[in-house]
Design a protein that fits this description.
With about 150 residues, the protein is mainly α. The chain is built from five helices and two strands.
Length: about 150
């Protein structure tokens, strides 16, 4: 079982390749995303999955932000070098599998129909936007979450 103390991430971070870094800068992503690339995003995704495994306590808006991080990973992987992809894909698969086990699917996008249409989010392609934690008993704002 995945825990916040047992990292699946590589010990040596790889600096983002030029295409990854340029894409991040062009899209206006946070400095950490631009400077640390996929390794940073994967570490963040791992933290999110661990929080869900333990019973998500955060706010719905924080969850939306976490799912945006997973979206950025999906945008960066095709731009990444072989070394970047190799350091990410196995771990990403493990984290995604764990995420699926502790979340449930929704018919609608967590961002709402308007944003899903605007950005082209689809349940099969951008599945993280169509799932929420199964256990929201500890969430600070349970009433804000989609049913």
């Amino acid at each position: 079982m995945l825990t916040r103390y047992a990292s699946v991430l590589p010990k040596d971070m790889i600096q983002p390749s030029q295409p990854v870094r340029e894409y991040c800068i062009q899209r206006g992503f946070a400095a950490r995303v631009c400077n640390e690339g996929l390794d940073y995003l994967l570490a963040t995704w791992q933290r999110t999955v661990c929080e869900i495994l333990e019973g998500y306590r955060g706010l719905f808006d924080e969850y939306l932000n976490d799912m945006d991080g997973r979206q950025i990973i999906s945008e960066l992987v095709p731009l990444a070098t072989e070394a970047e992809r190799k350091s990410v894909l196995d771990e990403l698969s493990l984290l995604d599998h764990s995420f699926f086990k502790v979340t449930r699917s929704l018919e609608a996008c967590i961002w709402g129909a308007d944003q899903a249409a605007r950005h082209g989010y689809e349940p099969n392609e951008n599945w993280w936007y169509y799932r929420i934690p199964q256990n929201l008993d500890s969430a600070e704002d349970r009433d804000a979450w989609p049913q």
